[in-house]
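quick one, 200 residues, struct below
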Amino acid sequence: REYRYLPKSKDLLYRSVFWVYQNKTYYEEKRGGFLWSPKYTINGRRHPGYESMKEVKPGDIIIHGYKANIVAISIAKSVCFSFDRPSSSFSEWAKDGWKIECDYFEFPFELSTDSICRKLYELQPDNGPLIAPKIGKQQYLCNANKGMLDCILNAYVSAFYRKEQIDRLLQFLQLERTTVFNSDSGKKDQELFEDVRVKK
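---
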């Protein structure tokens, strides 16, 4: 049995999903409620992981990867804006950067991707976060999609049985859960979310 996670209003259909790798800066970024990347590499070149910052809009969902685990989900509160590196923790990158303000929902445990890595790999879009089922890209911000989010939420529900914590996460994301007994993993991203239930 799997679940499908549906937006509570039609406007939420248009949120995008991203995946960020924060192996070195997660705790500081979580504490400050932001994402930060340089605008260019040390050599002054553009990089897909930094250019992706310009695609994020308020309301978009960000999956946070930390050392092969998923540790949080956040919602963007702003578009990216110019901001110099926040502290010495970011000193290995160029000073001139992008910042996005976001609200973090930290998981009560680190969710291992071992059991779902192949499914995530198969579901990911172009510029997704994985180059192989258990190998992440050397890239800060990557594209993800609602199919990947659906997979992660199912893993979260399976691993954590306290209903109030599950409900808190769904409320945070403005989603609701319905049971799917014959889930079609081949469905396109938009189809997973087309059965929208509007709550007045």
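The first strand starts at residue 2 and ends at 7.
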